[in-house]
Specification:
globular, single chain, 3 helices
Amino acid sequence: MPISRLEYRNVDFNAGTEIAVLFDHLLACKTNGHLVSLKLDWYEPTQHLSSTLNPFLLACKKLNCLDLFMFDTTSGVDVLLESLLENRPESLEKVMTVITYFHN
């Protein structure tokens, strides 16, 4: 059965997982072909999120909802948001982003 909705929380049991590894795994499993909704709660410091998130989103041809919660993001939020505006998947209709403990 294909996965159409995915909620992933990077918490204690997944601590240390790199976000690029997660997206590579999802692509290898061909999850992107059916994914309609993605909720991603990422609690580890992340740099240059757009370089890993945007290619994954563009591979998700049916994705219409992205709910992104990031904690302790060190850089690249402006690049991520600009890239989402310029290169968003055609099907993407709704984007919710929460950033907590932002470093300047």
